[in-house]
Specification:
There is one protein chain. The protein has 259 residues and is α/β, with parallel strands linked by helices. Helices cover 37% and strands 15% of the residues. The protein has 7 helices and 12 strands. The strands form 4 sheets. Strands 3, 6, 7, 8, 9 and 12 form a 6-stranded parallel beta sheet that branches. A two-stranded antiparallel ribbon has the order 1-2. Helix 6 links the parallel strand 10 and strand 11. The radius of gyration is 18 Å and the shape is globular. The N terminus is likely disordered.
Length: 259
Amino acid sequence: MPADTDTEPAAVGTPARRTATPWVLMYHSVAEFTDPAEDPYGITVTPRALEAQLLWLRSRGLRGVSVGELLRARAAGRGAGLVGLTFDDGYTDFLTRALPLLKRLDFTATLFVLPGRLGVDNVWDPLGPRKSLLTAEGIREVAAAGQEIGSHGLLHQDLTATPDEVLRQELRGSRDLLRELTGTLPEGFCYPYGHLDARVVDATRGAGYGYACAIDPGRLAGPYALPRTHISQADGGARLRIKRLRHRLRELRRGVAAR
């Protein structure tokens, strides 16, 4: 089956238009669960569901890659058929459940981690369940396996509500800590909770990141506020197809609005 491309269907007599932002999928945790009450925030997919979703991408001629790899490919004109894969928070189950599957399919992903919460749990989710976060060694293992490590800040705070000095530490401090852990400055940042405003976006750019991921950034969408598509346990092939179409339509509307 031919690969999907990064162009929108063109009207008769008009050229195809490249989308302004790529399709990037947002995951969090990969773990077994049977009762939706065990996943009150809708952030968990089972290993079986993840495998089916990634195989659906492959069946469409698509390959999942890290956001850094995706943006570099697009800049070189080689982005057709690539989809960004992101995993927020840096849960230990990325190493044990997601990474083996990614390696088997020859996919890569960006894992956004919290170097200020190494080896603890998701205390910011009051309803639970408690999920363990990677240790420093676990983050190094993920990086050594060819996956991209990005920053999710230090402590998973709403950056729009923090004073300038705290914002600076969340951005620059987390970046410096990740360089100490992995030997490489992270290229990407991910806004906790998806919350952002113009001040936070400007500070992220100023902290030296090459890109940043959001959820639905609206008018701030761009390299430092990349929109992403949340993927849940319920997303089979039909729902993924609809979410892909929604992304394309959103980008088409955004392009028209910008004119």
